[in-house]
Amino acid sequence: MAEVKLFGASLSPFSRRVEMALKVKGVEYEYIEENLAEKSSLLLEYNPVHKKVPVLVHNRKPIVESLVILEYIDETWKQNPIMPEDPYDRATARFWAKFIDDKCLPAFWQALWSKENEREKAKEEACHHLKTLENELNAKGTKFFGGGTIGLVDIAANFFGYWLAILQEAAEMDFVTKEEFPVFFDWIDEFSSCSAIKESLPAKDKMLAVFQSRFKASTWKY
Amino acid sequence: MAEVKLFGASLSPFSRRVEMALKVKGVEYEYIEENLAEKSSLLLEYNPVHKKVPVLVHNRKPIVESLVILEYIDETWKQNPIMPEDPYDRATARFWAKFIDDKCLPAFWQALWSKENEREKAKEEACHHLKTLENELNAKGTKFFGGGTIGLVDIAANFFGYWLAILQEAAEMDFVTKEEFPVFFDWIDEFSSCSAIKESLPAKDKMLAVFQSRFKASTWKY
Q1: Residue A1, pLDDT score
Q2: What distances in angstroms separate CA A91 from CA A52, A153, B14, B48, B73, one per listed residue?
Q3: I need a labelling partner for A141 at 20 to 30 A (CA). Which of A40, A59, A77, B145 fits?
Q4: Å from B213 to nearest chain A CA?
């Protein structure tokens, strides 16, 4: 068995987080693509509580929950840290990563997938949270949330760095624009040009086709 | 200004988490009770994103989100660690603390505060999550989730160590019993007899009176 295995799904931004961190660290791993419609018995054994990807298996021991995995990776392989050293900066990074998971991602899910009559309100809320995140980056004045190099928050925000544009295109929506979020769009350019990031992302045309068909199959109008 | 200040609310188990950690560490602090119906301008300044307690202010810098604060406290004051040293054990502790926040607490909130016709299902789900947590403690075979001393998960679980019994009494419910959760009830005894914990908990009679009146004022039947 390989020392490091990752059970993931190619269209899961949470799985991509783990790949990004492993690539930033230069850790070799075996990737196992899970079929989410028919999960493997190994996945269920490794993550009996949530039965979800991603699961990182290191020396036969499973670690689950993407943000928990990211911190584990950073503590286990010290090179190219994705967490700051200072306790206050570490707390700040954890705060924003949690903000992305608790507020931003659910809001964007709603904005993209809710019924027509609920969509405008959901878009407004999603943009409000994204502006909060953009303001943080603007106040820091650095290229990345992690400073000069990508860190926990950048990796946690990968949905916004890549997926969002494709989902907007697939749904024929354009509520997040460069004009409204100039600092964030600069970040997207920087983020998506990092080699560890580029190598971890699914091909755009494949994603676009998948999501276009999902939006078309939706009973709600797009 | 004191070096360490805590903005909290006496009936918030999230605020109590921070007090417990500070007491375990022996860190002196000034406690400021917030009126949640009329939050202070300082609280809003320190936590503009969520506008919630608890907020820890250390050297004039605010830290928010209770689990983030606990890790900050552990990294800043090294004595009496509440996090394990080994990265895998650290990941495990973070996983269970997150499980408590994401699954257990919302489920118990539903079980206690939902309409009569939704209550049975909510109770079942809450007990299912609590059993998952109990199984983890049982498998560890230690006095506390933290091992021989209380750690992150014990502190995160303080709601179950103290509040739950009082809420059940106030609502005249008894769906979580010692017979069903023997390992968990042993943990409650150990947990609530630690001095750092006892000192951080609001008086039982005050809590009981507050919650009895809340349940009585509810439009749902208890």
Answers
A1: 53
A2: 26, 11, 17, 16, 10
A3: A77
A4: 32
Read out DSSP for A2-33?
-SEEEEE-TT-HHHHHHHHHHHHHT---EEEE
DSSP B147: B
Does the structure's ipTM exceed the value 0.90? yes
What average pLDDT does the segment A4-11 reach?
95
A149: Cβ contacts below 8 Å, ≥ 6 apart: A80
pLDDT digits (tens, 9 = 90+) for A50-90: 999 999 999 999 999 999 999 999 999 999 999 999 999 99
Q: How many contacts (CB atoms, under 8 Å) link A and B?
A: 52
Eight-class DSSP state of B103:
I
A99-156 tens-digit pLDDT: 999 999 999 999 998 888 889 999 999 999 999 999 999 999 999 999 999 999 999 9
pLDDT of A183 reads 97
Instruction: Say yes or no for a CB contact (<8 Å) between A87 and B76.
Output: yes
In chain A, what residues touch B58 (CB-CB under 8 Å)? 88
CA distance A55 to A53: 5
CB-nearest partner of A91 from B72, B94, B132? B72
CATH 1.20.1050.10 intervals, chain A: 87-217
- Chain B residues with CB under 8 Å of a chain A CB are 49, 58, 61, 63-65, 68-69, 71-72, 75-76, 87-88, 90-91, 94-95, 98-99, 132
Would you say residue B77 has pLDDT above 80? Answer: yes
| Residues paired with residue A4 on neighbouring β-strands, in sequence order | A58
In a mutational test of the B interface, the residue from A51, A55, A68 whose CB has the highest number of chain B CBs within 10 Å is: A68
Per the CB < 8 A criterion, the answer to whether B176 and B206 are in contact is: no
Average pLDDT over residues A193-204: 89
What integer pLDDT is reported at residue A2 of this predicted model?
A: 63
Say if the Cβ atoms of A76 and B87 lie within 8 Å.
yes
Residue ranges of chain B assigned to CATH 3.40.30.10: 4-76
| CATH match of B4-76 with 1.20.120.1200 | no
Is pLDDT above 70 for B1? no
CATH code linked to domain B87-217: 1.20.1050.10
> Side chain identity at B200, as an amino acid letter?
S
* DSSP three-state, residue B201: coil
Looking at residue A197, its pLDDT comes to: 92
Smallest Cβ–Cβ distance between B75 and the set A63, A75, A90 belongs to: A90
Q: In what order do the strands lie in the sheet with B30-33?
A: B30-33, B4-8, B55-58, B61-64
